[in-house]
Design goal:
It is a single chain. By secondary structure, the protein is mostly helical. 47% of the residues lie in helices and 11% in strands. It is built from 5 helices and 3 strands; from the N terminus they run H-H-H-H-E-E-E-H. The protein has a 3-stranded antiparallel β-sheet, covered by helices on one side. A hairpin with an 8-residue loop joins strand 1 and strand 2. Helix 2 packs across helix 5 and helix 4 runs parallel beside helix 5. The longest helix is centred in the C-terminal third of the chain and has 15 residues. It is globular.
């Protein structure tokens, strides 16, 4: 996926699976329907990711997104989280100092997940 595709990706199970795959170090090429099914089956069987039986809802839950933020901070120590008071649909920004790149989203959890995936894509 390109950074541009990630920057418009909606919150939901597909994003959560992709984030989970990257946090636990599993390489994902093209995230096809077969990949999603296989990854979900491996998670459910306990054969992957330290026996995790479910995928956290990183993109919609602020508490779960903190795990993503910690992983993001390991990749890029200088991380910025900003909330905009402007009258826009995109209120949150999560970015890093390298060229001040990052992602905007309507929720903090989604901004964190997008920024993590974009940073993984550009590294």
């Amino acid at each position: 996926m390109t950074p541009e595709e990630i920057d418009v990706m909606p919150a939901g199970r597909n994003m959560d699976l992709l984030v989970c795959a990257h946090i636990f170090g599993h390489r994902v090429r093209e995230w096809t329907a077969e990949d999603k099914t296989r990854f979900a089956e491996l998670l459910d069987s306990g054969k992957i990711a330290g026996g995790i039986k479910y995928v956290p809802v990183y993109s919609t839950d602020e508490v779960a997104a903190l795990e993503v933020l910690r992983a993001l901070a390991k990749l890029q120590p200088t991380v910025a989280l900003e909330h905009s008071d402007w009258n826009t649909e995109e209120e949150w920004f999560c970015g890093w100092s390298h060229g001040y790149r990052g992602c905007h989203a309507s929720t903090i959890a989604l901004a964190i997940c997008r920024a993590f995936l974009v940073l993984k894509a550009v590294k």
